[in-house]
Amino acid sequence: MKKLTIMLTVILTVVAFSGCDWFKPPYTPPTGADANVAVYVLNSAGSISVIDLEEDSVYNDVATVGTWPNQLVYRDGKLYCVNSGSNNITIYDVSTWEDETPIALGAGNNPMKMVFYDDNTAYVSCSVSNKVLKLNMATKTVARELNAGVGCTGIAIANDKVYASNTGYVYGSPYLQGTVSVFDAASGDSVTTIDVGTNPQDIALAGDGKLHVVATGDWWSIFGTVSVIDPETDAVTATYPIGGTPGSIAIDEANGVGYCGSWGTGAIAYDTDDGTVITSTFAGHGGSGIMFFDAVWLSDWDADMVFKYSTEGTAIDSFLVGDSPSALAFRNDPQD
Amino acid sequence: MKRLYSGFLLLAALCLHAGEGATVYGVVLDRSNGQPLVAVNVLFKNTAIGTMTNEEGCYFIQNIPPGNYELITSMMGYEHAVQNLRLLPGDRIKVDFRMKQTILDYGKNVLVTASRTQKLIEEIPASVDLIDEETLSMIDPQDVGEALKNIKGLMIKSYGGLGSTQTISLRGSSSEQVLILVDGQRINNVQNGQVDLSNLPSHDIEKIEVVKGASSALYGSDAVGGVINIITRSPGEEDRFSISAKGILGSFHSRSFVSSLNYAVKGLAVNASYKYLYSLGDFDYTDNYGTESTRLNADIASHSFNGGLGYKFTRSPMDPEIRLKYDHYSSERGAPGTIEPYYYEARMWDRSDNVSMNFNSKIFNPFNDIRFTTSYRTTWNRYLNNEMLVPTDNSFGTRALNSELQGHSVLNPYLVLTYGIGGQSDAMENEQLDTTYRRLTFYAFVMNESIIKFDRPFLRSLILTPSLRFDSHSDFNDVLSPKIGLVLNFGETWKTGIKSNFGLSYRAPTFNDLYWPEDAYTVGNPELEAESGRDWDLGFRLQFPVLDGMYLESAFFHNRMTNLIIWESNAGMWMPDNVDEALIKGLENGLKLNILEGYLSADINYTYLRAINLSGSASEYGKQLVYRPKHTFNFSLLGVYRMLSVQYGLNITGKRYTDRTNSEVNALPAYAVSDLMFLLKPHIRDLDMNVNFQISNLFNAHYTVMKNLPMPGREYRISFEVKFNQKTNKRRVS
User: Fold this and answer.
1) Residue B391: what pLDDT?
2) Angstrom distances, CA of residue A221 to CA of A174, A216, A244, A268
3) Rounded mean pLDDT of B565-577?
4) Per residue in B355-407, pLDDT tens?
5) Left (φ > 0), alpha (ψ -120 to 50) or beta: where does B314 sit?
6) Which residues of A77-147 form beta strands (DSSP E)?
7) Which parts of chain A sit beneath pLDDT 50?
8) What residues make up the domain containing B347?
9) Distant-in-sequence, close-in-space partners of B473: CB < 8 Å, separation ≥ 6
10) Number of domains, chain B
């Protein structure tokens, strides 16, 4: 009887213990990750790191993101993450790192990037549904679906118009003509479509108000180009054959230099005025993500590092971040 | 036979005058049937004087110094027999033994996988676990994954409910580093190295043996974490006729039907079984944002058929036997993927067919066995998904032809050899690319088992088992895999055993690794080499008479893996390379308690696992490998009263990381899942019945084993089986 009593006590303890809440402890983000001047790092494995530029420290694992995260956008104290696999946008308060209800974009869209038009309106490019979604950020709903081209990926706003690059990627076939779909930013109505280079992936706004569309090319048969679009006329004013296989773009407006991230080899730097390639091996490593914020910031997927480079190509600083960093964003709200 | 026996005795008598010491001779028989027993150890206790019985069950020992002795006979599956003797110079004494079978323990404790021949658990250096027919009857699994879920050191990676993909990790290995055998034939897919356990129905399984630790020295590639051998039912040896039918109903619109037939008479035996399974799999879950949803497109419909034909040449003294088997499995299922992204229309089809032939016989004399096996296995898989960025409609087919000749020779107690040669041809076809990839493997292996029996109160026996295997592959490097195992058995009442192993193992690069066709982002690497493992373990087991029997087992394992294949990006192209290293070590602990003999027993298992990445970036180095829990705990309590058995099971799996930097935000929390099972086994004349009722996930825990792949909540299942079982011939054919 005594044996049975002992056994039953053990069993009941174990069963009770199996229902305890400690199996799911609430996650507490690291304290201090509320920097006013910071670089935010999106790690593909599903987390966000914060590089505090005021304290020169790194906070990893401050938040979890959705599946197949693609892009981070900072705006007014909030960080937005576009998740392709989750088909949503997750939102975080960068002071507390509490997350808000995500914006559900609907299955089958595969959102790639977003851009804000104003406080209440944002646009999202979707590469599977070939659409641009107009979002009502006040209600966090999709206000309108706009038909773009095949493989809609990059997105930017200039001259009250939305520009979305279409890679033309169709599985098992050569790339279609790369295009940029143009929409009226206020209404969402289609304006025109512009032909650019093969496989256009990203768009950035240069200091002169023109859009630079970086096209990766067809990897080993067609090499990278940058198409310059004048938003006034919606015409391509120049095409720069920068070479390589660039996939992202950041522009140093002050010095007129464009940096096109090229996976594994850093970046290709070119003169935004005439397309002259300054160097095709800027940094020489990294390039999964690129950003210009007082310096050139590069993420290195393999090394799990983010590097800060001077415009001359000298490494200034490096930061160990989360698993597989792929995109960057910054906040610059210094407190007096 | 009588003439031979008489001749042997005459020869023995003639030889008696040869020495000055004493001579002892005799015959060893089975007590139950009077048959002579072959290869029985006959040993004078506390001496090195001994021999083995010959094919007539006779032994003969001469030149024994005068003195008082205990003469002991021992053989696997039989109780020891002892005779006290006082020997004087020139004595000639005949001592016969009639040994008693330990039938009940024999079946439960005899394993074949660890040494390729039948061995008792206490004689095997490797850590082993066994799921026998009794356990299978209790847990009534729908597939092999369900059957294996409570084995210590083993983790089933479930991608969802019934019918979802299930892969395996053993002692912290990847799923490609576990060799899965069905009746000794490897079934790891050459395309990706894995086995989806949900495609292996359980209705035809007799037992499952789990051998942990490096086993490439006997089985070649992929046996890094260990080997799992699924042994299916063979055509029966006993003259019987049986027919059974079983129906299963369960939650989430699941239903299943199983039928089987067995007939055996005069050495000829046939068996056949069929299983149909359907499940809608529409369980409720909570998504990552707290929304209640229903798992859609998670249905499965499968058919499996198993047939066998066996014949035993009962009149031949060499005991030859031939068996033919055919297995078929086909299924169609939804492939919803993760909940982010969710695929509502993706489908998957699987089909496999396997034909095998097995011939066993003694050769030359009863001390030599040969076994020839040949098998041909085809698999086909189609995955259709138009909801992805890259629409996919891929079909892959594999073909594997294996032939092997194995010998087993008992030369003396110190030289018990198991050896063999074999070859395997693997091919994979991709219908879309119209491409066929091939691999040829030739191998040879040898293992020796030296058994030194002391039969002293403290040290009973020492068993040393060195083994070596050479594999030559047509598409990657040749590999030599040595291993040595040691067993020390102590004590009589408090039986203790110490086991240790050291061995090298390897995993073959898969066809995906080697030949992935070049596209814009990825390309295979035909220069890849095999992954390597250097493994050692040290364990003990202790059996002692506390309560009504207590069995404690513990093993420390350590495996350093190098050349691990990882897909890396290189200037935008993803390509596999032999770059990673890992160190896996841990402690497995098991306690079996027989609380009230025949009524109440308990199993408690705990595994600590440290699986460390020794490569990658600074933020990855030294971190726990993904999906390897540090702590796993299993508990089960079984109560039996007459026809009714009740079992409660609890599995607690610790936190798992899902990325290489071990970020806490992406870690999956620990979970605890309880199951409750009832089994009623009424018996009426020639009718055996099984009524099984299960509640899985008793407390309705919300959990995931793999990220974004929810598991079902509380699940009910009831099954009813009726079996007609009758002897076809009153006289047993032997």
Assistant:
1) 78
2) 11, 11, 10, 18
3) 80
4) 999 999 888 777 788 999 999 999 999 999 988 777 788 888 999 999 999 99
5) alpha
6) 78-83, 88-93, 99-104, 111-118, 121-126, 131-136, 141-147
7) 19-22
8) 231-727
9) B221, B439, B440, B441, B479, B508, B530
10) 2
pLDDT of residue B11: 40
**pLDDT tens, position by position, B641-678:** 989 999 999 999 999 999 999 988 889 999 999 999 99
Q: What is the ipTM of this complex?
A: 0.80
Q: Given this model, what pLDDT does residue A12 score?
A: 56
Predicted TM-score of the model (pTM)? 0.84
Q: Do A171 and B570 touch (CB under 8 A)?
A: no
Residue count (chain B)? 734
Q: Is A68 on the interface with B (CB under 8 A)?
A: yes
Q: Cβ of A265 under 8 Å from any chain B Cβ?
A: yes
b/e burial code for range B394-410 (CB count within 10 A of at least 16 → b) = eebbbbbebebebbbbb
Check: CB of residue A99 under 8 Å from CB of residue A83.
no
Question: Nearest to residue A165, comparing CAs of A196, A208, A133, A134?
Answer: A196
- Closest-CA residue of B relative to A284 is B571
Tell me what percent of chain B is helix, strand and coil, each rounded to the nearest 5. 5, 60, 35
pLDDT for the residue B433: 67
Residue B115 lies in a domain: no
Give the phi and the psi of residue B170 in degrees, each rounded to 5: -125, 125
Q: Chain A residue with minimal CA distance to B664? A: A61
- Nearest-CA distance from B671 to chain A in Å? 6
Contact B658 A45 (CB under 8 A): yes
- CB-CB under 8 Å, A84 with B572: no
Domain of B584, CATH number, reads 2.40.170.20
B281 φ, ψ to 5°?
A: 65, 25
- Would the pLDDT of B15 be above 70? no
Residue of B nearest to A244 (CA): B571
Which residue on chain B is closest to A64 by alpha carbon?
Answer: B665
B2: domain CATH number? 2.60.40.1120
Tokens representing B75 are 């053989």
Regarding whether B239 and B96 lie in a shared domain, the answer is no
**B665–chain A Cβ distance below 8 A for any pair:** yes
Q: If contacts are CB pairs under 8 Å, which of residues 69-128 in chain A contact chain B? A: 83-88, 101-102, 107-108, 110, 127-128
Q: Do A87 and B340 touch (CB under 8 A)?
A: yes
The answer, for B48 touching chain A at a CB cutoff of 8 Å, is no
B101, B116, B146 - which closes a domain: B101
